[in-house]
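User: Teach me something about this protein's shape.
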Amino acid sequence: MKFNQTLFWDIDPKTIDKKKHSQYIIERILEFGSDKNVKWLFNTYNTDLLKKVVKQSRSLSPKTKSLWNLILNNK
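Assistant: First, the predicted structure itself:
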């Protein structure tokens, strides 16, 4: 996936490493991403990592955390 400026407005998307910056990418996509972004996320990262990021994140809004906890715990 090519990271676009609208989702990663605060950095240069060309500098993102999907392995090294996984938490940052996951948080941004879960909070602001489109359906296409979320589909890519689920194809790129395993469910255990997604659950871990949601649980430990200080960046996700409470509503976003609740939604993704419900979705991920039913997978």
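Now, about its shape. The CA atoms of residues 18 and 25 lie 7 Å apart. The chain has a mean pLDDT of 92. If you'd like, I can walk through any region in more detail.
User: That's plenty for now, thanks!
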